[in-house]
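Tutorial handout. Part one gives the primary structure; part two gives the three-dimensional structure as tokens.
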Amino acid sequence: MATMQLMLVRVVSGPLGRHALALAGGLVLVVATACTSVGSARVEPSDLELSFPVLARLGVTAYRDQDWCKVLAYARGSFSETTEHSTCDLFQGRPSKFDPQAQADFEQVRATLIETGISPSYVTVEYLDGAVLTAVFEVGCGGCDVGRYIYEAGRVAASPELGPGSSQVILAPHWTWYEER
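Part two.
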């Protein structure tokens, strides 16, 4: 129960708090169960894949949505809203401030990700011939320091490179859940 209460505070007070309140019953349950242990039920990889068409159409390579840091790097350029560029920006080069189109595209990516059942703090994507090659969705994790859904096209087994306190589980072909404690 303590984990669920912690997650409720994190979801409601986070950057998507106003959206989370509308989804609090289901979302809190999903987030609390998704991060309590490696073997727990999680968001289905097929649900995460529903975001791929929007990410690919916009050419998103980096997305970050935290109360102190907002980033969108995509086909139109790199946009950032933060006072801490050295720790916030997920790309090389100097970002622009969000213009109205970048803001609208950021909101579209945010809404698409929420529809998958997660509100990631960041997402990175690589493409091959316009198709998603790799994607990393980092999510809040009540019982761990870092939790990531990792998609790697063509890969069917988990990477053997695990550091101390980290673990991973193959969720589906091409999908791994990775967490650090």
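Part three, for discussion. The chain has one domain: 43-180. Residues 12 and 21 are 6 Å apart (CA to CA).
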